[in-house]
Amino acid sequence: MGASKLAQRLWKCNDAPTDDERTQLQSEILNLKAEFHTTSTPFTLTLPTHIHGDTPSKKIRKLHQTILQHLGLLSCIRTIPAEIWQNVFSFALANTENQHPDNPYDRTLRTLCHVCALWSATARGQQSLWAKLPTFEFGHLAHRPGSLKHPGRTLGRLEQYLANSGTRPFTFGFVFHHDRRLLAAYLSFPHTVLKRLVQESHRWERALLYLARYSVGGRWPADLARIKGRLPVLSRLDLTVAARDDAQWSAISSLFFDAPKLRHVVFNSPRYLPRGVGRGSFNLALPWGQLETFEGVCHQNLSVIQLLTHCQDTLTTLKCDTRLHPGIPPPVVTLHKLTTLSITFSFPTVTTWLTGLTLPALCDLELHGDEYGDIVPLSTFLQHLLQRSQSRLLRRFGLLSQCPLLTELEIPSSYAFDPRSGVWLSLDIPFTPGTADKIIPRLKVLTLRSDARDSDWAVDPEELLRMFSWRTLSTQDSRTVGGLEQLREVRFVHSGPGYAPSRWGSQLDLLDRSPSSAFNGVGECMDPAVVEVWKEGLGKLGQVSYSASDFLNILHQREMNTFVKVIEEYDLSGHDSRILVRRGVLHLLDEIRTRPEGAIPGDKLFHFRKRAAALCDKWKPRLLREYQRSPYRWYRLTDSSAVLRYISAESVGE
Q: Which ranges of 447-578 would DSSP assign to H, the alpha helix?
């Protein structure tokens, strides 16, 4: 038993065995299998965990492994041509990102090269695999302290990529962080890497540059200035400037102006800059007339103005977070090819911008903003934009007007959702301005579903309840009025993984704390803060299990006795107490009173279960009268879901 000299030779290389070697290997495998049969065990590719009731001996396991190794030498994988392997590698790495500080592409490629000599040689012979250079990151030592310990290794890796890629255009990333200065010993290292990249700037195809002035000795990387006029194949630029002033910015602001093939740009300018004459502006000179896509955060610069002015016939995608001064007048333009528009504004002049745009090819629209106008809802300006543009999006926008028989509608919440959009569903406001058409007249169930991206979204409770009352009370004399039917239910649902976003919980709390008059209540609504304290305390009192120490902690039991006494002495007169039901206080009391004897610490002494039952019996008649006065029911089903329901007077059981 053991490996022959032939097997040992083939294991050290990746050559396919010759015909003579194949015959010899097959003979050796037959001998090994015959030896394996002497153990009274039939050979299978998978060794069983038990043989005759016992685990396989060490001899059986070693013999089985040797047979498998010899069979592997006859595998057809050794006969696969190098060209096939190169195609496999290209396919495996096709969607792996290289312009990222973690360098997943570089780690995967090096792993493939370390498998065996054949794979390493095959990968080195495929130039396209090496045309995606790593992202070289400097100044961020907090999480990667070892990244600068071996500058020679990093430079060697850079030279390996440049050599193996031949003369092909390549992509790369270069990051100067602004959060930490480089150590003096490594200050020249990033300049060495940048100089080498600049020498190959005629091969740049996609460039990621993150520049921070303070991380390189208080100055901009002057080495970058040499790329001007030497970017013949650059098609995509991702440029981020992290700085606190604009000194020397003009030295690198026009480096990409004469890139003949530049079509796609991501530009992120500094967020905060000092004010003053001639300061606080990071304007970038680009070949605007040829750009097709533009993305980024554009603070204190005129990039959006330049785009709208010069890219009317080329721009297809515009996604940016702009912080232009409200005094800058937007141009009135028609962007003939723009299909995707996503803009975030932080000032109320968003409506002025919408008024000046005509987008006949628009298919995807997102508007985000911190402030909207208080006079006219944003939805009105969107309608005018789409009707003026006559784009395909108009058909989607007006879809609901084409669904007069629709009875159930679901709307996902989003940070782009207009807080006043509930007004669209009101009976007294037409869907299309200037017409008498009413939107979805037979709607019975409306569902608002939380969104994973939810941050600032909220439905105005007054608008929602106003819409709900119009859809119910205005038609209560008959089931339909002019083809309009009563809206029966509004559902709030969280469907994402894990807990609901905090803003979604705040949305439900807004409705919880709506004025009593909104639900046809009598008297002032109870203080929501008091109700929350009760809910938390009763939840602890009625928890499912207790530890042994809880039954011995008489001090805590006395505190709970005092807490229940405060609830018992609270006067509900003159208050709308239905919030006790909406927040689950009555449900918690019902759970406490139905707990088995001895399940609650201190119950024998303070009679918590009997007192909870007494509170339920005391409050229920009052709550029933309050609910009978109003046709609305607001239920909190869970912490992240609720339902607003209309109950007509003739409903059975009410």
A: 461-472, 502-512, 528-541, 548-552, 554-569
